[in-house]
Amino acid sequence: xxxxxxxxxxxxxxxxxxxxxxxxxxxxxxxxxxxxxxxxxxxxxxxxxxxxxxxxxxxxxxxxxxxxxxxxxxxxxxxxxxxxxxxxxxxxxxxxxxxxxxxxxxxxxxxxxxxxxxxxxxxxxxxxxxxxxxxxxxxxxxxxxxxxxxxxxxxxxxxxxxxxxxxxxxxxxxxxxxxxxxxxxxxxxxxxxxxxxxxxxxxxxxxxxxxxxxxxxxxxxxxxxxxxxxxxxxxxxxxxxxxxxxxxxxxxxxxxxxxxxxxxxxxxxxxxxxxxxxxxxxxxxxxxxxxxxxxxxxxxxxxxxxxxxxxxxxxxxxxxxxxxxxxxxxxxxxxxxxxxxxxxxxxxxxxxxxxxxxxxxxxxxxxxxxxxxxxxxxxxxxxxxxxxxxxxxxxxxx
Length: 398
Hints:
The protein has nine helices and 16 strands. A hairpin with a 7-residue loop joins β2 and β3. α1 packs across α3, α1 runs parallel beside α9 and α5 packs antiparallel against α8. The protein is α/β, with parallel strands linked by helices.
């Protein structure tokens, strides 16, 4: 475990200002145990100061998870991110250049975790390798589309296909996080604006890539971010957009304004990765999302097991929910064309997935039509899910 320290002198005054903005936007309360998973954009290789084991993961004391932990006042913080990680390294040990293999990152999770951030997917699609190849091709081709032609000949974009193929892997990671830490708030972090969206007119030779190829790289970043956001929405995770905050600070900007380094870094950072300013930007984006309430649990349709039951029988209803939560069932009876006041309220703690709840026969003493309403919540200050309805009819015994 590590405890983050904000803004030491070695990072400089510019980062101090960014760290101050990050800290003031933080959530007031300690979120509980916080675990960070991710790749090199999470670990921040070479950004001062590298710490932790194995050394070959190159985790920085000023990566965005450390800044987030400090901004939140997290008293328990575990960073298991590792440079070069892919989704497979969430469940399997990862070999690194220095030290023993990094254990499966999911092993850092447990039932007590209350916040998990994830930054993964770029290495599955090979985005850093794409950028490196584009720089190699662009050195001799300041105009044209050498990189686009290499990776997308005749419009057949091989990298776009890799991004699309990564989607189910992201879904599996998020589902595994929920399984291991069912009470945790989960946020998945997108990738920032590394390449200028407009093609970087005048970027060459500072960054030897043609404007069209820079637009191609930017389009890939937008594509993977869209995929990650879709998987977040489908798997009870909050998506963190780091792209917007980092606009105008791409690799083509001048030192001091540049938050992402090229092949020859101007700040202490790994080539083609965020520097300390970029990590501070990503931390601000994460804190911006966490400063709002956690989205409400999502209930699927409520269904009565039997639409008609005999008086004296209990009524069972089925529902699915996307995470562990408290579900409140309310019962009303139809009378003269209207539903009565609440006759009965039943509160149950549910697990993620399929659930069955029962209303006792005592609640259904009189024949007639009953409406059952379900809502879900999972903590103080959280939003309550939209209500789900179903009906049962109690018949008179013959």
